[in-house]
């Protein structure tokens, strides 16, 4: 029962991520509707106007992702989602009721502000309420909901286009208010992050939330719950002595700068993988490869639907396999797929009716292969940035990483049309190189975080990176734990980049049977 409760809380909070995907996808179909163009008095949108509509949303998201950390740290994770829901509702109303371009851009900017706040906070909230053995799955709910929102936006836009008139663009833009209102009204029924409560000195409230979310029906895992709370208390006490009070300190102290680079780097890798160029400029891109417009739209629709299927499958492996084991093949596979795609387009004219049909099918297939390999990177990029920071800095670190994501998105939004016009399919070679370079960086610098509590991940960085040591120990989730001083714990020599961690269990009593309600593997 506890598993379903935690899952429900994460899924409901991730309605904000659904808005992320929906709002990102719906605008491209809406601004191409004939009724939209007639409404604003032009047969086509100028590049400046189209750029303003798209860039205002991303600009708002950059600001929102930075502001989120202040609200989250002072008022809690739920407050960010509440404010985000209100702003998203206002933004949807302005977009759906727009009578001029300025009103539409204002609505997009406000919606972007909301999405920026929520995209930085939802993974933090999910990570902080999830047990270690399912944290990856629940925190990756953000990417799953983004994908779902994007698919829904595509089909809502397509369905409304069949009716025509102003309904073809007003309804899709207004529809985003529905999940926003549901989120705004329902967020206060979810528990606040217990780690945030304890960090603010509200320990009894934090204990109560932990007991509600983690204790199984017979309370046989109470000792593991107490150990989890002990770890949080110890971590918070340690962090108070080295608290960072400004963004400048966060960037200048090597201890924190290292983690900022890891979190922001993974978001850069995500954007440089090529996924947003394919999803946002798919029709243009496929026509560059020689496909007809109708074929391009069909491919993009199927691409989004299949991507959602892969997200669903990978959610169940992200914790069992680990972050590094998924990231490295993901980056390698995307690079190979895009390199093959670029090579095919370079030597074969897909617009030629007599072109090799096998090559044509291979060209289409490579985009679906890319979709498969992107899944791991897309999901882990949101999870990892919330795992590597301690509770007092988690919101700030996630905000900086999310702002990086949106900033790089803005760069590609402005540059991709120019690149596609000037170098065409050779653009894919750039993304292939990005992916392979990122693979090397992940292999060399990114430690494994799966299977540890959030406080355990902090210990990994403290002993292996911040203090220059390379030792850690794990406590098995299925064995009651004797809480012992760190100086008395036996360590095994485990390199931080190991893909196969070894376990050193300190146990008391008999083994506790796993039932899905345990806290998870701990690091002490």
Walk me through this protein's architecture.
Keywords: Membrane, Transmembrane, Transmembrane helix, Transport. It is a multi-pass membrane protein. By secondary structure, this protein is mostly helical. The chain folds into three domains: 190 residues, MFS general substrate transporter like domains (Growth Hormone, Chain: A), CATH 1.20.1250.20; 101 residues, no CATH class; 200 residues, Growth Hormone, Chain: A (Up-down Bundle). The protein has 24 helices and four strands. A two-stranded antiparallel sheet has the order 1-3. Strands 2-4 form a two-stranded antiparallel ribbon. Helix 2 runs antiparallel to helix 9, helix 4 runs antiparallel to helix 22 and helix 5 packs antiparallel against helix 10. The longest helix is centred in the C-terminal third of the chain and has 33 residues. It starts with a helix and ends with a strand. The C terminus is likely disordered.
Oligomeric category: single chain
At CATH's second level, what is the architecture of the largest domain?
Up-down Bundle
Which CATH class of the largest domain is shown?
A: Mainly Alpha
What is the CATH homologous superfamily assignment of the largest domain? MFS general substrate transporter like domains
- Count of separate DSSP helical elements: 24
Question: What structural class do helix, strand and pairing data support?
Answer: mainly alpha
- Overall average pLDDT: 80
SSE succession:
HHHHHHHHHHHHHHHHHHHHHHHHEEEE
* Structural domains: how many: 3
Shape: globular
At the fold tier of CATH, the topology name of the largest domain is Growth Hormone, Chain: A
Low-confidence stretches: 468-524
Q: Percent of residues in beta strands?
A: under 5%
Q: How would you characterize the largest beta sheet? A: 2 strands, antiparallel
Instruction: Quote the distance from N terminus to C terminus.
Output: 27 Å
Spatially, the strands of the biggest sheet line up as 1-3
Tell how many strands the DSSP assignment holds. Answer: 4
Radius of gyration: 24 Å
Share of residues in helices: over 70%
């Amino acid at each position: 029962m506890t598993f379903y409760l935690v899952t429900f809380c994460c899924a409901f909070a991730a309605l904000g991520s659904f808005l992320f995907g929906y709002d990102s996808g719906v605008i491209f179909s809406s601004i191409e509707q004939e009724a939209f163009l007639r409404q604003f008095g032009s047969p086509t949108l100028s590049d400046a106007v189209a750029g303003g509509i798209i860039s205002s949303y991303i600009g708002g998201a950059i600001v929102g992702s930075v502001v989120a950390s202040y609200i989250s740290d002072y008022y809690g994770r739920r407050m960010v989602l509440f404010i985000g829901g209100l702003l998203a509702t206002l933004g949807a109303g302005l977009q759906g009721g727009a009578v001029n371009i300025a009103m539409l851009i204002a609505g997009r900017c406000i919606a972007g502000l909301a999405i920026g706040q929520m995209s930085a906070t939802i993974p933090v909230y999910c990570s902080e309420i999830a047990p270690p053995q399912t944290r990856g799955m629940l925190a990756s709910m953000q990417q799953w909901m983004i994908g779902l929102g994007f698919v829904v936006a595509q089909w809502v836009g397509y369905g409304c286009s069949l009716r025509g008139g102003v309904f073809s663009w007003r309804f899709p833009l207004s529809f985003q208010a529905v999940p926003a209102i549901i989120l705004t009204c329902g967020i206060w029924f979810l528990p606040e992050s217990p780690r945030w409560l304890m960090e603010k000195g509200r320990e009894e409230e934090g204990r109560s939330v932990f007991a509600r979310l983690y204790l199984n029906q017979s309370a046989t895992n109470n000792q593991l719950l107490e150990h989890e709370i002990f770890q949080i208390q110890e971590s918070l006490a340690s962090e108070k002595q080295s608290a960072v009070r400004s963004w400048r300190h966060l960037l200048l102290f090597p201890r924190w700068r290292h983690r900022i680079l890891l979190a922001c780097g993974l978001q850069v890798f995500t954007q440089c993988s090529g996924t947003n160029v394919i999803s946002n400029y798919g029709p243009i891109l496929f026509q560059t490869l020689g496909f007809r417009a109708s074929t391009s739209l069909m491919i993009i629709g199927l691409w989004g639907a299949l991507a959602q299927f892969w997200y669903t499958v990978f959610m169940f492996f992200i914790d069992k396999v680990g972050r590094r084991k998924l990231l490295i093949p993901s980056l390698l596979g995307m690079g190979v797929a895009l390199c093959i795609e670029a090579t095919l387009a370079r030597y074969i004219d897909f617009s030629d009716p007599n072109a090799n049909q096998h090559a044509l099918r291979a060209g289409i297939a490579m985009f679906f292969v890319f979709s498969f390999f992107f899944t791991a990177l897309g999901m882990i990029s949101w999870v990892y940035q919330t795992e590597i920071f301690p509770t007092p800095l988690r919101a700030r670190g996630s905000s900086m990483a999310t702002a990086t994501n949106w900033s790089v998105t803005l760069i590609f939004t402005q540059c991709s049309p120019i690149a596609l016009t000037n170098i065409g399919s050779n653009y894919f070679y750039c993304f292939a190189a990005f992916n392979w370079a990122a693979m090397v960086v992940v292999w060399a610098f990114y430690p494994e975080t799966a299977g540890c509590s959030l406080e355990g991940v902090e210990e990994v960085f403290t002993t292996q990176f911040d203090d220059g040591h390379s030792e850690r120990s794990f406590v098995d989730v299925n064995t009651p734990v004797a809480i012992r001083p760190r100086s008395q714990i036996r360590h095994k020599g485990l390199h931080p980049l190991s893909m196969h961690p070894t376990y050193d269990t300190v146990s008391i009593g008999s083994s506790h049977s796993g039932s899905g309600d345990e806290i998870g593997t701990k690091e002490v």
